[in-house]
Design brief:
The chain is an alpha/beta fold. The chain contains seven helices and 19 strands. The protein is elongated and about 65 Å long.
Length: 310
């Protein structure tokens, strides 16, 4: 069984839904394959306070419901499924859904996002959204004046720990090895911030608390000494993995797997294939920037279709 569409959007979340809103209003009658996590990372977020237009904040899942309803209002057809493979060798592009259904698309907008890397602790999963977070910029404000911990040793962990230090009373930076991997400039900034305490050779055994984070049990992997930190927030900054594996044989990526786009646009190296949101943004990774690039992708797709039809 196969279907045909002018514009196929792979993935939902702020980027995918915004692309759908713009594409449907432009008369492209887009089709969306929502993916394995419809709504993206915001569906596992609690309070969102930094997205414009919500003066009192909003729960992440509710916000994604608003995005979905707006996309459907203008005629976006949403398939609650996932893409198993693509063939970008020629237009119309061939996209296979769940290894059985084929969609032929004149343009494809990739909005598959990225997933945070986690430590893999059961307590981390249980308290995710209740004091455990993978985004200090998103959630740091909720821990103003409190004691928190952040895990990681690279530039992201160093940058986010200094960000948290401006808001929190105390920040423990938990580094698995005996040195930071961050750049010298970032290391200096961390070491010169008085309320950041760096704990080297530290591994997290458990995040404690029943309904919210109350502490963390830490092991020094050299001395084998255990320590209990009293904290109310636990941040994980060990990297993100873009959800781009199915595009490996077709599109250019950087060393981490983020899709490469032509600067100033969402165009990939294949005319008619566009990438937006966290699938191609390794720097900002915010809902508002993802939505902005989703708008760009829809406009780029509309212009591309106009050019080949002229």
């Amino acid at each position: 069984m196969s279907q045909k569409t002018h514009c196929l959007i792979i993935g939902s979340g702020p980027a995918g839904y915004t692309a759908a809103i713009y594409a449907s209003r432009a008369g492209l009658k887009p089709m969306m394959v929502a993916g394995l996590q419809p709504g993206g990372q915001l569906t596992i977020t609690t309070e969102v306070e930094n997205y414009p237009g919500y003066p009192n904040g909003i729960q992440g899942p509710e916000m994604m419901e608003h995005f979905r309803k707006q996309a459907e209002r203008f005629g976006t057809e949403i398939k609650w499924s996932y893409v198993s493979s693509v063939d970008f060798s020629k237009a119309p592009f061939k996209v296979t859904v769940e290894e059985k259904e084929t969609i032929l698309a004149d343009t494809v907008i990739i909005a598959t996002g990225a997933s945070a890397k986690w430590l893999g602790l059961p307590s981390e999963q249980r308290l995710n959204g209740f004091g455990v977070s993978a985004c200090a910029v998103c959630d740091g404000y909720f821990f103003k004046g409190q004691d928190v911990a952040i895990v990681g040793g690279g530039d992201t962990a160093a940058e986010e720990s200094t960000y948290l230090a401006k808001l929190c009373r105390k920040v423990y930076l938990l580094v698995r090895k005996d040195a930071l991997r961050a750049s010298k400039a970032m290391q200096n900034r961390v070491m010169n911030t008085p309320n950041i305490e760096v704990l080297f050779n530290s591994e997290t055994l458990e995040i404690t608390g029943e309904k919210a984070v109350e502490g963390a049990r830490i092991l020094n992997n050299k001395t084998k000494e255990e320590k209990n930190l009293k904290i109310t927030g636990f941040f994980v900054a060990i990297g993100h993995k873009p959800n781009t594996d199915i595009f490996k044989n077709w599109l250019d990526m950087d060393e981490l797997g983020y899709l490469k786009t032509i600067p100033g646009s969402t165009r990939t190296k294949i005319p008619g294939v566009f990438a937006c949101g966290d699938s191609q943004d390794r720097i900002y990774r915010q809902a508002v920037t993802a939505a902005g690039s989703g708008c760009m992708a829809a406009l780029d797709a509309e212009r591309y279709l106009a050019s080949i039809e002229a």
